[in-house]
Amino acid sequence: MPRIPQSLVLEGPAATSAAARDAASRFVAHVCPWADAEAVVLVVAELVANAARHTRGPWRLSLWAHLGELRVGVEDSSSDPPVGRAPDLAGGGGFGWHLVHRLAHHVLVVALPQGKRVEARWTAPHRGGEPARRP
Description:
Radius of gyration: 15 Å
Number of strands: 5
Number of helices: 3
Shape: globular
Largest sheet: 5 strands, antiparallel
């Protein structure tokens, strides 16, 4: 019998960033127990916070799992891609985009007709081996 993909969608601003973190934590625990839940929740927190902070309009968080792959996507209304900047140790930020790249196995930005989707992906560990990592 084929495995059915599991998914979850939240939309802001009706859903808060705290609700997004909580939903991601529960999703990983129930659907992808092999994934590093703390890493996924941190990535969700960063992507949702950036969408809320740097764009106008709503955001949409999607979590999707199928055949050993977990995808977290955040869609927003801005077509501007995220840009990493030098971290400011005096409290000015600049850590988030670097953190997302460090924690996810793969990160990509997909242009949409009315904005973009920033997507982070993780692959389940191979049996008897290390997790698959991005090249």
